């Protein structure tokens, strides 16, 4: 059972070391799930004296006004033998054997956090005391409740202290140790008042009555101690602390405890309650109860830790890895991010992710439709055919067939195909750029670094622009090739009837009659349609080879080449992560470390059992 309290002690120290004080934050808190005993009382209620009686040492600051200005997590460790000593978590290598020095260090550490302005702070001080005369116990000493701000304190300090105390005791895992003086009306007790607000049924509250020996003559606290005046689930405990005169005379704790036992044993009103009175009994009772509560909470804490670790790991994964400090590490990080982006981009083109199918739509629908819309009728109108045939003949009319006229008609028609060819190149270029935008959005690692995201996008667009220009050259060459060399077999298969070719005995004007010219136009149109059918298949091949294939192979090659020339400072400028994200990642990493340590500590105790 002692291991359980030691376990919680370790977890509380780890929480404080890693910034988890249980206050409201955007991070999950382990502190709030750990059972703890919070000591609550008004000023001059004897709260400090109760704690010193449980420990058996003078170690707490004393004085007028608000003395405790930060929560003090007091962890008591029972040792079998040896000299008793104290350790502060903020001074891990130093052991205090002089408890007067412990008192001074509490004051100094409070001032380091709050200054000498009597302000308060929710950041706790951790103090561990190792002694053969203590029980294993953890107590959190909270600032005393007050009704009036003293000089040097803001008016809000009264509400600030109350809010701090409430934040500790309102948690369901908190055990409340409510300190009330017997020489004041219990109805006015600050500790009972605030405890009743958060624990109306008294299920988590232990009542402690101090200054019983200072009550007016003829009065006693029997009704309170027997639970008749104010009933709690646990029995009230009365204590008799050292008086101020005893403290001034440096009366030791051993003598004070002996006198306390004698008081309850010899006072007729309290003799029947003596077995459960006194600071020694209080310490043992709290230790036993704390062990039981911790034991009952362990399964829930384990479940919470496992769930929170998974959530923290998921968020850290989403935020990405931290930035490397050296140039090599930064270059490697940038290259890795770019490779991830490049892989996602290829997945879009290969059909693993959506978007690549739009390219096929250009080839299967847009290009054929554009070719079909070409108005060859204008090029092959009767007037145009007659004009080009006549011009091609020059002063010497053709003898058999107007070959030069055919060439001019075909070339002037095929030139129209350049438009749909260029439009197909541009359409695929637009799709490839759209896929770059998609891939950038889907590359989570790029979200960390706005500048790198812009640079990668610009580099990809520049590469696509170069590929588009190369693709246009190659695609238009296909059209120009068709213009530069006609398919002879097509014309050889045409009927060579002299009537259709023209009768050389006819006059030059008969040679250009409508029927003859119409047949020429029909022949040219048939040839142009054959070429269109051929280009419909070859243009997509050229575009895929020059644009799609190259985009998959070398989209960021030029960027990588330039990247290798950059200095550390230039690489740093690319990895300009949002400071808020960096801060969040650091906080999450610390909190994850806390939860993993906690998981290991709890598992070790579980296996030991």
From TrEMBL:
- One Pfam match, given by its short name, reads GED
Cellular component (GO) terms are: microtubule; phragmoplast
Q: Which UniProt keywords apply?
A: Cytoplasm, GTP-binding, Hydrolase, Microtubule, Motor protein, Nucleotide-binding
What InterPro entries does the database record attribute to this sequence?
Dynamin, Dynamin_GTPase, Dynamin_GTPase_CS, Dynamin_N, Dynamin_stalk, G_DYNAMIN_dom, GED, GED_dom
Does the UniProt entry include the keyword GTP-binding?
A: yes
Compartmental location:
Cytoplasm, Cytoskeleton, Phragmoplast
The coiled-coil regions, if any, are: none
Principal place where this protein is found? cytoplasm
UniProt keyword Cytoplasm present: yes
| Dynamin-type G domain boundaries | 31-299
The record's comment on protein family reads: Belongs to the TRAFAC class dynamin-like GTPase superfamily. Dynamin/Fzo/YdjA family.
Protein name (database record)? Dynamin-related protein 5A
UniProt lineage: Eukaryota, Viridiplantae, Streptophyta, Embryophyta, Tracheophyta
